[in-house]
Amino acid sequence: MSTSGIELVSFSQWVDQNKLRELSQSTELERNDGVQKSTILLPKDVTDGKRLKLAIRGGEWPPNHSIRHTLWHEVCCSKTNSAAAATVYVETAANTQGWQTHIPAFIDNNYILTYALGTEGRSLVKKMLCIIEHVHTDITYCPLLPAVASMLLHYMGEEECYASLAKLLASKTPRYMTQTRTAFQASVLTFNDLAKKYADAAHHHICKKADGNHGIYNEWMWWIFKYLPFTHLVRVMDCYLVEGIKILYRVALAIIILYKKHTQGRTQNIEPSEHITQIRSFVTSIPVSPVKLLKTAFKIKGLSIAVVNKYQHRYELNLRKTSTGHTHQIGDKVTPLQIPDINSSCVNHSQLQTIWHWLPDRMSVKQPVLLFTTEEHGSSIRALFNKCEDEEPTILLIKTTSDKVFGAYLSTNWGERSNVDGKFYFGTGECFVFTLKPTENKYGWVGIHGDGSTRSASLFMRTEGDSIAIGGGGMDSIYLYNGLEKGMTGQSLTFDNPPLCETDFICQVVEVIGLMDHI
């Protein structure tokens, strides 16, 4: 199919033309690259991968070219039954309530990107994400999905867009986006290694200027989807839909190569945060056209999907092994479609989702219920026991007067304290302690990975007089006394945790959350 003579048409009905004008960058650079434009012939069969890849790489269609109205959907759904996916979407939407206000747990609130979509388009993206959460329960963390959904909706109808998303999520070869937090974290480590191997001079330049990369690469994916001009992003999407996630790595490597060229000679060291800002600024006003950006990306030799998969697989395995250690970020769990608001004074909904991702698998499908709060029931150990004594398991939450938030997951009910025969401690190795503010970390039992041979490493829960303690040996991880008004925290042998806040603290609020079956 020849693209010569095809009209330039408007975007889908979901696009706000005023927003589009704000996003669109002048295409003057495309005309100044010295590239001779030629007619691009697309293969009649979009499943002809090699010919299609070459044709798409050579395409120079502006963002509003009519070709994307059919091309994107055909590429996404060439080997799948899009009608079946559309039927699933319609039927699931008819039986799913609350999507207007629900935010799926697998997205990152910092990266809900909708570009030039109007109000109705943004609402459709939210609807699709909620349907995906309901249908694809194995997806636990997929921050790229809102951006990809929004880009597709610029050129497609609602059901076509959903069918395309379903295909991208199900595809294994090529792979399009990470769908668990472990995989996402592995992608950052993968990019770091790819930068060392395929853009060594640029990588060295960045590390030298910032005295190490210090998490600068954490944003590698968002350089493309959040900061790159819309005209450039659309051309990246053309290639991405055909070739998968490999294209994102290539483009991000091209960005740091061009960044090095742009900033070379400025040798002063800067703070990592300033470096992050500089890269964002560079990408936002990138001084090359989409053609030049992609040419730089495709000049990188030897970067194959096999290489990407090798690094990605290695880091995912390493991270899964590490996840059984002491310190964890949010794990990959299946959580309820919608965790209800429990009116907690200690945690917000996002922090509650974090806790739920940390729970044992069989518990993560349960719903939270607020059993006890000092604001209502008073600062009394006896009151806590009266409300929670027979509940199992429970989550203890503490908010201090210095606005720190931390707590513990307790596998055994407090009533067990009367059955310990003078041993004081009870509980099991499923117990863990955690912090939520200012940082989110989980500290599991050291015995999980073979460090629990001593009795001190199995001291989980204890009560004594008007005090309770979590973790033992050395210091208590959490020790509450004087009713529930004061406390101490330190490094215990049970969880090998650092102090969860300042060593001595005053409680502002103490709460206990129970777990109940979903109704």
Describe it for me?
The chain has helices at 17-23, 28-31, 49-58, 67-76, 82-94, 119-135, 145-153, 158-170, 181-198, 200-210, 220-227, 230-243, 246-263, 272-284, 290-298, 305-322, 349-358, 374-377, 381-388, and strands at residues 327-328, 367-373, 394-400, 405-410, 425-426, 432-437, 441-444, 461-464, 467-470, 478-481, 486-488, 504-516. Strands 1, 2, 3, 4, 5, 6, 7, 8, 9, 10, 11 and 12 form a twelve-stranded antiparallel beta sheet that branches. The protein is 41% helix and 12% strand. Mean pLDDT is 82; it is low at 1-8, 25-39 and 324-337. With 519 residues, the chain is α+β, with helices and mostly antiparallel strands. Strand 10 (478-481) and strand 11 form a beta hairpin. 42% of the residues are buried.
Short description:
The protein has 519 residues and is of the alpha+beta class. The chain has helices at 17-23, 28-31, 49-58, 67-76, 82-94, 119-135, 145-153, 158-170, 181-198, 200-210, 220-227, 230-243, 246-263, 272-284, 290-298, 305-322, 349-358, 374-377, 381-388, and strands spanning 327-328, 367-373, 394-400, 405-410, 425-426, 432-437, 441-444, 461-464, 467-470, 478-481, 486-488, 504-516. Helix 9 (181-198) packs across helix 16 (305-322) and helix 13 crosses helix 15 (290-298).
Helical proportion, percent range: 40-55%
Taken from the alpha-carbon principal axes, the silhouette is elongated
> How large, in whole angstroms, is the Cα Rg?
26 Å
Q: Average pLDDT value?
A: 82
Unreliably modeled segments: 1-8, 25-39, 324-337
Q: With helices defined by DSSP (H or I, 4 residues minimum), what is the helix count?
A: 19
Number of strands: 12
**Residue share in β-strands:** 5-15%
- How far the N terminus sits from the C terminus, by CA atoms, comes to 55 Å
Overall SS class: alpha+beta
- Describe the largest sheet: 12 strands, antiparallel
